[in-house]
Amino acid sequence: MIGRRALLGGVALAVLGAGAARSMGVEDEIDSYGFIGKVRCHPGKRAALAAVLNSDAGAMPGCILYLIAEDLKEADVLWITEIWESKSAHDQSLELPGVKAANAKGRPLIKAFEMAVETRPVLQQSQNGA
After folding, report:
1. pTM summary value
2. Given this model, what pLDDT does residue 3 score?
3. Candidates 3.30.70.100, 3.40.50.720, 3.40.47.10, 3.40.50.10860; correct CATH number of 4-119?
4. What are the pLDDT digits (tens) for 54-99?
5. In 16, 63, 70, 103, which residue has its Cα 20 to 30 A from 24's Cα atom?
6. What Å distances lie between residue 34 and 71, 92, 111, CA to CA?
């Protein structure tokens, strides 16, 4: 099983690998799905929710990036950013036992989902070539 922390550790390699594959003409188009969500936690529960979301939910096939970030201006807000190989990989992940358990444990800590946006990630190399 690969935990979310291990997955995040490999994100840089995955992104650089995708860019290199494209530049070599191996892959012209990456079929990907993205999700960005703003979650308002109950007062004082942000760290607890972040811990739940960063816990080892097990392998999530098709997940390229799963990032939890604290909002710098709003003390009770977390941003969730996800990149998946496809929409179906994302949808299938919601049925995994580890993901269901993490969602059940985290749900009482959430006051509201204030925003949810679906995206199509476009990967590119940074300006400095990294």
Report:
1. 0.71
2. 40
3. 3.30.70.100
4. 886 667 899 999 999 999 999 999 999 999 999 999 999 999 998 9
5. 63
6. 19, 14, 23
